[in-house]
Amino acid sequence: MKHITHTVAVTALAAVALTVAGGAAHADATQSTDTDKLTVQVAPGVSFTGAASDGSSVLATPAGTVTTRDGQVAVQDAAGVPMLGAPLETVANNTDIAAGTAAPEPVANPGDPLGNLNAAWHAAGAYTGLAAGVGGTAGALIGTVVGCPIGAITLGSMATVMSAAALTVPGMIGGCLAGAATTAAFGGMIGSVAVGLPVGLAVTAQKFNEIQSGHAPPAPQH
């Protein structure tokens, strides 16, 4: 029974990861083709690195990393050992491209802070989408891992632990899938906002400062 439950959990984990990552890839398909790579510290020990040129993103945490690119997902533990999917080659991991290299910015009207802010927000859109995608993937994976065993012992109710007499293999499998689906959806939403929002704000602020500095009057000559 333990082997069956483990197999179901791994299958559900992979299915949720591929579904979330596929949605993220679709959302990024209409973004700009900037060739720069940016890294944002989301929280202590947690960082996001994204490259809009190939739609790749890496979310690094103390527990491991989640990498997405073109609908593919790779998860590695803290020691770099693959846990899900094969390691992905990404521009985000390519040290030949310097972090923070800026692509040409949208032209905004000098002296128009609102226009500059709007231009900065659009320039940051690709990274916001990438961050929301990889954050949602990570959240869904965590939700699946947590929800499957809880669902198995509660038979999907997620509230009441059943007695040993009430637990059956079909019931536990169904409960695992129901629990994984519930917590994966919730975890995906939380992860998407928790990573996408701070990255979007940070990159927008950086792009805004870059645009503003380009409009700054030259320093007086002495």
Give a quick precis of the structure.
The protein has 222 residues and is α+β, with helices and mostly antiparallel strands.
Report on this structure.
With 222 residues, this protein is of the alpha+beta class. It is built from 4 helices and 6 strands, in the order H-E-E-E-E-E-E-H-H-H. The protein has helices at residues 2-28, 113-123, 125-154, 169-215, and strands at residues 37-43, 46-51, 56-61, 64-69, 72-77, 82-84. Strand 3 and strand 4 (64-69) form a beta hairpin. The longest helix has 47 residues, at 169-215. The protein starts with a helix and ends in a 7-residue tail after the last helix. Residues 1-34 and 95-105 have low confidence and may be disordered. This is Ammonium transporter. Residues 1-27 form the signal peptide. Keywords: Signal.
Output the strand order for the largest sheet: 1-2-3-4-5-6
Quick one: biggest sheet? 6 strands, antiparallel
What is the string of helix and strand elements?
HEEEEEEHHH
Uncertain runs are 1-34, 95-105
Strand content: 15-25%
Number of helices: 4
Distance between the termini: 81 Å
Q: Domains counted in the coordinates: how many?
A: 1
Task: Report the mean per-residue pLDDT as an integer.
Answer: 77
In terms of quaternary structure, what is this? single chain
Task: Classify the secondary structure makeup into a structural class.
Answer: alpha+beta
- Rg is 21 Å
Topology, number of strands: 6
The helix content is 40-55%
Shape: elongated
